[in-house]
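Lab meeting notes turned into a lecture example. A postdoc, R.K., suggested we walk through two folding results consecutively so the class can see how the record format repeats. The first protein's sequence and structure tokens come next.
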Amino acid sequence: MLSSLAIVAVGANAQSFTESFDVNTGYGAGASGVGTSDMTWVWQNNAVGGPGLTTWFQGNTTVFNSFAGPADGYIAANFNSSTGANNISTWLMSEVRTFSAGDTISFYTRTATGSIWPDRLRLALSLNGASTNAVDFSNVLVSVNENLTQFGYPETWTQYSTTLTAGGTGRFAFNYNVTGGGPSGNNSNFIGIDEVAYTAVPEPATMAALGLGVAAMIRRRNRK
């Protein structure tokens, strides 16, 4: 009976995942693409003035190490997402998921120690199916240093978490969003993201099945 309960429990979180970015492939400069690490992500660089030298890339240990795992096991974005002095809007979109109210999303992020160039990162949600159109990600769930305050972005790995209040099918996305950024701008430096976790709440039917399994196990024990 314990093995059957384990199967039910796994099914309850079939939509859940964690992403450590320990190995990143397929991310780079350019307007858009698909990259694979622990899972498949869609990336877009919508910077004003066009993409710069970078989009998302493997963590740089000369700036800082990862929160967990290999030293370079995180994903990063920086001021070179754009050119000149322009607005940066670089996206990293999850695989399609069926979300439910009560699901949680958490992640760790930080910037370089002593950075004087403000950074901003947003976590946004789209419930428009498989769409990768940035305009569909209008529901901002978390904003790190929304007002682009100098020294407002954490300089040590800091966890942020949010709980969804509505359900539907779509994606969530990280948006490195910095106005006045770029190599000649007054804003934007370097940010990292690590240990992303999406946790789906069990469906009611699954919970009912789990309850029946527990009840059956109790009855069997009582017979002994």
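The second example is placed directly after the first for contrast:
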Amino acid sequence: MSIAKKEYKRITVKTLVDMKSNKEKISMLTAYDYTMAKIVDEAGVDVILVGDSASNVMAGHETTLPITLDQMIYHAASVVRAVQRALVVVDLPFGSYQSDPKEALRSAIRIMKESGGHAVKMEGGKEIKESIKRILNAGIPVMGHLGLTPQSIYKFGTYTVRAKEEQEAEQLKEDAIMLEKAGCFGIVLEKIPAKLAREVAESVSIPIIGIGAGDGVDGQVLVLHDMLGMTHEFNPRFLRRYMNLYEDMTLSISQYVKDVKKSDFPNKEEQY
């Protein structure tokens, strides 16, 4: 069982590598705005991911593909202004790095300069190796992402578990080692068999953060709105809901409407 070994005043990419070495689990959650990011940071989360999942939970899109680089920078800047302790990792959105390494570098530089984020995250393996190298050469930390890669949803055609077959599993292992050798400081593994995720975590010295990847990895990440129960349609096996805010907020708002309608709000004590 992993327990916190020390207090970290500020989390850096080196901190995460040290945490893996010390067998201390890493906590990671998404955030997309100032208010929520401030709460997440003060609660002690190690890494805040400004995910392109903002496309789904903030903008209502079906996939992560529509969100733009400008929109990611807006969300990331809002988060960075709130954070005192956590490492802030920002997703490079679809279309901002796949075309060529120079475009990838320009996108990463814009995120770092305009949002103040601490690192970027990119989906893919050997096909984006040159883009990763170019970004790293500019001094920008990169986190990888393998397994289910939502930006490639139309290629896969489904959100089911990835790398169940031997060939895809071997390719994922090779990609993980390649990402480490290229200089990535960590990798997110999404929705793959737990046994494979454990093997990957044991094969590299950089932290492996899982989402639907079992308990044999170095840390876990969830979408904040999912784990707080603000969403209720999405129910994958890996999701643990720590609250049911959808129900609580609906009841509270409904009560507010009733109080206004019957002139119960504001009462005498709530007026000047």
